[in-house]
Design a protein that fits this description.
The chain contains five helices and five strands, in the order H-E-H-H-E-E-H-E-E-H. It is an alpha/beta fold.
């Protein structure tokens, strides 16, 4: 699956929604995607849940599962372990730390213009050829 380039908008939900939807254009069947958030459901995550409920992800060939973060949930090691496909982190420091420690990571979106909350995925998954 190939992640296309897109214009980053200040609204995080729009950014990931476009990234996930755009990545699915080549998919012929529903592709399972697990997206992990950095905390429990909150207003800033609303667009992701809305796209799940209104069928936007399915429309573009994605079967999205959202896994909430929280005080006792550490989704960060789940990304390189292959348990999640996309991970919303709290800031870019985790992405820089992944690079420093040799964890193959690709930042695919920054959700908010000021806080730089990124979404990452493992490099191995990001380089998988798209289906035609």
């Amino acid at each position: 699956m190939r992640i296309p380039a897109f214009h980053i908008r200040p609204l995080g939900a729009v950014a990931l929604g476009l990234a996930l939807a755009g990545a699915a254009f080549a998919a012929q069947a529903q592709e399972k995607v697990v997206f992990a958030t950095n905390w429990k459901a909150q207003a800033g995550h609303g667009g992701f849940y809305q796209a799940l409920v209104d069928g936007t992800y399915k429309k573009y060939g994605l079967d999205v599962e959202i896994q909430q973060g929280g005080p006792m949930v550490n989704n960060r090691p789940m990304l390189p372990a292959g348990k999640v496909d996309f991970l919303m982190t709290g800031n870019l420091l985790q992405s820089f730390d992944n690079v420093k420690n040799g964890v193959p990571t690709v930042v695919v979106a920054a959700f908010f213009q000021k806080t730089r909350r990124p979404c990452s995925r493992t490099r191995a998954r990001a380089s998988t050829p798209s289906r035609t």
